[in-house]
Amino acid sequence: MTTQHDQGLGALAQRLRADDPDRWAMAMLAAAPARPRLLTLYALNAELARTALSARDPLLAGMRVQWWVDRLEALRAAPPPPHELLSPLWSAWGADAARFAPLAQARLHDADREPFAGPEAVVAYADATGAALMAHAAQALGAADGAALRAQGRGAALVAWLRARPALQELRLGLARPKPDFLQSLAATATAAFRSAAASRRAIPRAAAPALFPGAAIRNALTAGTAGTDPAAVSEFTRRAALARLALTGRWWL
Which InterPro entries match (predicted)? Predict the structure, then answer.
């Protein structure tokens, strides 16, 4: 019998599949008992990203993001009133969902529409958003928090940022001065992070592999970044092939 909770989770999964097909696929590759945690976490991340860009007025966008910060922090004390996302999130994570408030806090930068001054600021943003998200997801699949998770998350988040940079520049969320050497620095930081994660891969259980998928054609993206150019878009065939390899081999590291 389908419950209201199952229906709510199913609706979130459908929306995530449309908004973030890679992370939807990663959740589907996880062990069934852990899927609600990944689906709700990834759906929250997609909603936070959307909310930060939901208004042209930075003040209004910031107020909307702050609403999420406050609601997530409140989960530490009590379950939320009925809500299409917070209710499934609470069902999957309980009071632990309050730990996701910093993910919302980091999106205040997006709401402010302020470009980054240099590579160091981009790395800090990547650590607070994509890297932290990956660490939460991997821990939900049995990995212990540590340097390997944070390094893989940093590398994946930086590559995602490099790929999105052309669109981000138009939104005033890219680099204040998009110099080629800045892109080279980000690519070098991502490469070093991936190497660090790979060196510690034996500490990560295979069950956590779906949460650590960095995306398709990562080496091509890093090569482009090293040349000081933006990575090319990834084809649907390449994306699906990379996910299939992950499912078959469990190899998440470069």
Answer: Isoprenoid_synthase_dom_sf, Squ/phyt_synthse
Q: Amino acid identity of 10?
A: G
Per-residue model confidence (pLDDT) at position 1: 40
CA distance 153 to 190: 9
> Does pLDDT of 114 surpass 50?
yes
**From the CB of residue 170, how many other CB atoms can be counted at a distance below 10 Å?**
9
Contact between 189 and 158 under an 8 Å Cβ cutoff? The reply is: yes
Model confidence at 4, in pLDDT bands (50, 70, 90)?
low
Whole-model pTM: value is: 0.96
**Which residues, at least 6 apart from 183, have a Cβ–Cβ distance to it below 8 Å?**
162, 165, 225, 228, 229, 230
- Per-residue pLDDT, averaged over 71-76, amounts to 98
98 DSSP 8-state letter? G
Under DSSP, is residue 93 helix (H, G, I), strand (E, B) or coil? helix
Contact present, 112 and 58 (Cβ < 8 Å):
yes
Please, which residues have CB within 8 angstroms of residue 201's CB and are 6 or more apart in sequence? 148, 252, 253
Terminal Cα-to-Cα distance of the chain (whole angstroms): 43
DSSP state for residue 41 in the 8-state scheme: H
Mark 67-80 as b/e (b = at least 16 C-beta within 10 Å): ebbebbbebeeeee
Helix axes 35-52, 4-19, angle to 10 degrees: 60
Rounded Cα distance, 231 and 234, in Å = 9
